Amino acid sequence: MSNLSVDHLLGIKYLKKSDVELIFKTADNFKKIINQPIKKVPSLRDITIANLFFEDSTRTKLSFELAEKRLSADVINFASGSSSVKKGETLLDTVNNILAMKVDMIVLRHPNPGASVFLSRNVDAKIVNAGDGTHEHPTQALLDTYSIREKHGEVRDKRIVIIGDILHSRVALSNIYCLQKLGAKVKVCGPSSLMPKHLDSLGVTHFSNLKKALEWCDIANVLRIQLERQDVNYFPSLREYSMLYGIDKKILDSLNKEITIMHPGPINRGVELSSDVADSKHAIILDQVENGVAVRMAVLFLLAGKIQGN
Fold it and tell me: In which order are the strands placed within the sheet that holds 105-110?
């Protein structure tokens, strides 16, 4: 199969296993290219992409923009803070005004879950979900899973524990979907107050004890505490959270094996990870960043192939 089964990247739950494998195979080729002296290819030379970010973002926005420019696309960047959205314009009006400029593809980050699905049903452009509320963040899950495959050779039967604020994390949900599609065993760890009620329906069980979780896993994907999405206090203090669920060199040294440490960034150093862990040989955090560009290039390239006449 050389085509995606979907017309948009709205969430991992809409993808087939073959879609994920195709994205990874395509990303392998782009990773070779971005490690060459000439890092640019003309693949999307006639495609215009608009990055619409209604939430603050540094890593994801930069990664998408770099991926687009590596593919030679024309790029428009939109930030809601300096836009007519503040004057009361609707999302659909904003997007239709941008599409009137002949934009082919939209990369959307929005605080409302389902915003990308809504757009995909109402506009004539390919939509890439760059994070919608606490729902999904598909390209982050793809790059995380791709990084596990690169480090460990395969994903099937690997034991991955996702640690931290599962309740507010779109990264966690997308990772669970993606890892399970490829046959990994996934569990979560963190305070019960930060666990969603529907964990059972996802086929995922919960460790309340960090040491037990780390003894079980091959890979620990550590999430940032999403303080900006918390309207009440879910635990007494960051210090107490760090004492119970923060990973430092001492706890890693106490394990009878080596595990891989991942983090989608940005890291709250001294809260979920100590600096000596974040910067250690256990961590593949910077590999995740590099792989993010290749994976996003793959997604954009494959979706652009579905634009009529391309």
Answer: 74-79, 48-53, 105-110, 126-132
Helix residue ranges per DSSP H, the chain = 17-34, 59-70, 91-99, 115-122, 138-152, 170-181, 210-216, 238-245, 249-253, 275-278, 285-304
- Digit-coded pLDDT (tens) for 125-165: 999 999 998 899 999 999 999 999 999 999 999 999 999 98
DSSP code at position 24: H
Q: Contact at 8 Å (CB) between 64 and 130?
A: yes
Q: How far apart are CA 32 and CA 10, in angstroms?
A: 27
* Model confidence, pTM: 0.94
Phi and psi torsions of 304, nearest 5°: -65, -30
Give the position of tokens 């993010």. 292
Give the residue ranges of the chain where pLDDT is below 70. Answer: 1, 80-88, 226-236, 308-310
pLDDT digits (tens, 9 = 90+) for 49-80: 999 999 888 899 999 999 999 999 999 998 76
Domains along the sequence of the chain with CATH: 12-135+290-304 (3.40.50.1370), 138-289 (3.40.50.1370)
Q: Are strands 48-53 and 74-79 parallel, antiparallel or unpaired?
A: parallel
